[in-house]
Structure formats: structure tokens, C-alpha cells
Amino acid sequence: MKISGISATSVAVGAVILLGSHLAQAEQGLNDLQIAHSAYTADVIDIEYAKIALAKSTNPAIKEFATLMVQDHSAVNEGASTLLAKLKVSPVDNSFSQTLVNGATAKKAELNGLSGVDFDRAYAANELAYHQAVNKTVEGWIPTIQTPELKAFLTQALTTFRVHEAHAGHMVETLR
Predict the structure, then answer these.
(1) Helices marked H in the chain
(2) Per residue in 29-49, is it b (16+ CB within 10 Å) or e — as a string?
(3) Which partner for 34 in 10, 66, 94, 126 could form a disulfide, CB atoms 3.0-4.6 Å apart?
């Protein structure tokens, strides 16, 4: 899709660079419970994007990927909830998770306004950019986490999220 001569991928990359600078500021100094809430929020957002894709796309590859996103991110959040219950702690809302929610609101409106191949390309580009940004953020969090169980959990989740990033990259290439 072209927007005044600019591709959807370029728009998505630009949005991630802008989002990344806001996220870098918002994520500084988060404690473990704030990180846990932020990671949970990021998963919920990707589940919401996937549900839009399941409702709008007719492309089997997009539907398969979106189904995987709902499945995997739901499983990660269930695991996180179990871990937090075991540790007898509650996640803490923070400016980083709020920044994620605010950015997602605009992205969901944009995706809902598209259809057909324009939607598929925008969804794939967003998934690639979103996983790149989230993966980089989680990589930055892991060394700062004080709770060994949370550190191990996010390290394992990051492995899954990297697979998602690669899969999204393949979709972007396929949909060009």
C-alpha cells in the first residue's frame, strides 16, 4: 500500500522508531512488578491486533499467524499470572504500559480502517515492527530484573517472541 508515495512498511518503521524513543524514556527505572505489568500489557495488545486480523483478513497465512498470536500470547500471560500468584505479588501499572496502550489505540483504529491486501500488508508490517520493538525492550529488561523466576520466564518468552518476529518478517516479504 502506498500513502502519498510512502509504503506501509516505511510508515510502520517510522512509527516504531517514534514509539521506540517514547518507550525508551518510559521504560527507564522500572521495577520487576512494573516490568511484569508492561509485558502483560504488550501481550494483550498483540492479542487485540490478532483478533482484528481474524475478523478482517481472508488471507490464510494472516489468519494462521493471528491465531498463533492469540494462542502464544494468551499462554504467556497465563504463565505470567501463575508466576505472579506463586510469588504472591501483583503487577504494577506504570507510564510504560500506559504508553503501550495509547499507541495501540491509534494502531487499532488504523487497522480497522483498512481492508483486503492493504489490511494484510499493514497488519504484517505492524507485527514485524511491534515484535522488533517489544523484543528489544524485553532484551533490555532481562539484565535488570531482580526476581530470578521472572527473569527466567521473560527469557523463555523472548525465545517465542523472536520466532514471531521472524514469522512476521516472512509475511511482510511474501505480501510485497
Answers:
(1) 8-27, 32-56, 60-87, 95-112, 116-141, 148-174
(2) ebebbbbbbbbbbbbbbbbbb
(3) 94
| φ, ψ for residue 50, nearest 5 deg | -65, -40
Reported confidence tier of residue 28, pLDDT bands at 50, 70, 90: low
Other beta carbons within 10 Å of 125: 25
CATH of residue 134? 1.20.1260.10
Do 153 and 80 touch, CB atoms closer than 8 A?
A: yes
C-alpha cell at 91: 503487577
Local structure of residue 28 (DSSP, 8 states): T
Q: What range does the domain containing 145 cover?
A: 2-174
Q: To which residue does cell 500471560 refer? A: 77
39-61 tens-digit pLDDT: 999 999 999 999 999 999 999 99
Residue 29, SS3 per DSSP: coil
Distance (Å, whole) CA 135 – CA 122: 19
5: left (phi over 0), alpha (psi -120 to 50) or beta: left
C-alpha pair distances (Å), 41 with each of 23, 66, 69, 113: 13, 17, 14, 23
Total structural domains in the chain? 1
